[in-house]
Amino acid sequence: MGGLEVEFNERRISLSNKKINKLDEFVFKVSQILEKYTDYVIVSGYVSILFGRSRGTEDIDFIISPLPLEEFKKLYEKFIENGFEFINSDDPKELFEMLTDKQAIRVCEIGTIFPNAEIKLPKDKFHLEALNQRIEVRISDRKIFISPIELQIAYKLYLGSDRDIEDAIFLYQLFKEYIDHEKLQYWKSQLGVAEFEL
């Protein structure tokens, strides 16, 4: 079997020969539950890991569209039915209030702490862009949604740790022939990292 193959087609990326690990399976499970009740997008470190960057992570960041309390209660119950628990609280109303108060809530599989999914509502225009312009990633018969690559690269540069910059460079090298460079420069400017040369 060959290495990971990435096919980029505007708003869809297809991955072939990807070896699915436990972290990927966790992400698939969480994504499948979330998408029954609301839109979601995965941002930050897992995006690089998904495409083959070798580094660890303890949490996966999900941004979700706002949903009413009754739908959130159904979402909560679906997680519980599927063997998950919430780290912050076991009261769905309290969790909902945390979400709407712009705090993140965390969910993990029962008996584990890591990995966990950090779930939050959009807190700024960058999160809204990530959600509204999300990219579908197909892996065999599964799909997940991630942030636009241009925004992901710029945001990682903005975060600025060594690991974040390495993530940005990794994604840029992988997708530089396919991404919209004007859009990348726009988001770099918006985030105050326009001078950073990749």
What's the structural blueprint in terms of helices and strands?
Blueprint: E1 5-9, E2 12-16, H1 22-34, E3 40-43, H2 45-50, E4 59-64, H3 69-81, E5 84-86, H4 92-100, E6 105-109, E7 116-120, H5 125-132, E8 135-139, E9 142-146, H6 149-159, H7 162-175, H8 181-190
Parallel strand pairs: 2-8, 4-7
Antiparallel strand pairs: 1-2, 3-4, 5-6, 6-7, 8-9
Helix pairs in contact: 6-7, 6-8
Descriptive notes:
With 198 residues, this protein is α+β, with helices and mostly antiparallel strands. It has 8 helices and 9 strands. The strands form 2 sheets. Strands 3-4-7-6-5 form a 5-stranded mixed beta sheet, sandwiched between helices. A 4-stranded mixed beta sheet has the order 1-2-8-9. Helix 6 runs antiparallel to helix 7. The longest helix has 14 residues, at 162-175. The protein is globular. The model has no long low-confidence stretch (mean pLDDT 95).
